[in-house]
Amino acid sequence: MGREKALLDVGGVPLIVRTVRLVESVTGSATVVGETPGIRALGLDTVADDWPGVGPLGGIATALRASRAPWSLVVACDLPYLTKAWLEYLVSRALASDADAVIAMNASGAEPLCAAYRDSTEWAIRSALSLGNLKVRSMLENLRGEVIEPQEWKRFDSDGYLFKNMNSPEDYDQARERLGKGVAPDLGADSDGR
Q1: Which of 73, 76, 84, 110 has its CA 20 to 30 Å from the CA of residue 187?
Q2: Which domain holds residue 158?
């Protein structure tokens, strides 16, 4: 992207702020893993990454360590099309599950960066990291996962955008266009975005 993705403006709000507000609307609180100067300047609740530079798996491990809850909702900041209805469904599935993780599946595989993890999974994730296994999807093979199949989650996203992330300037332009034209997800906010 050429700049910090979390700070990109989508719908008049930095992407990380949109994500935090959405998660807070479902769980009551949100903590951002990673403390860059730009994110700190926003005044969000943050925690330093225990495993900086190793990618998403380190972020998941850090989130689980920082959480005090039996389940943690882990959401990447670059998923601008997530909705409150979907996250509420995901959380309700997790709270009713005896699995280690509740994860949506799509055509390209699991969506580990929009999933719920039981607190007991922290040790397995930290063990994988200690052994140099940095791949989230490989780690998932060692957990008892409850899968949410496409036919279940598509009712929250008939257009197929729910898990579309922003990895390129084109993705960013598309998100700004879609979300700026009234196709915005329900952020659980009032009409002015607060």
Answers
A1: 110
A2: 5-180
Query: 166 and 15 in contact (C-beta within 8 Å)?
Result: yes
Look at the pTM and tell me if it is higher than 0.85: yes
- pLDDT tens, 7-48? 999 888 999 999 999 999 999 999 999 988 999 999 999 999
- Ramachandran assignment for 61, one of left (phi > 0), alpha (psi -120 to 50 degrees), beta (any other): alpha
What's the CA gap between 42 and 47, in Å, rounded? Answer: 14
- Which residue carries 């309700």 as its tokens? 92
Q: Which is nearest to 149 in space by CA: 103, 80, 117, 116? A: 103
- Tally the domains of the chain: 1
Tokens standing for residue 120: 């007991």
Q: Are 165 and 79 in contact (CB under 8 A)?
A: yes
Condensed to tens digits (0 to 9), the pLDDT of residues 48-83 reads 999 998 989 999 999 999 999 999 999 999 999 999
Q: What is the CATH number of the domain that holds 166?
A: 3.90.550.10
- Residue type at position 141: E
Cβ atoms < 10 Å from Cβ of 163: 18
Write b or e for each residue in 118-131: b if 16 or more Cβ atoms lie within 10 A of its Cβ, otherwise e. Answer: beebbebbbebbee
CB contact at 8 A, 88 and 26: yes
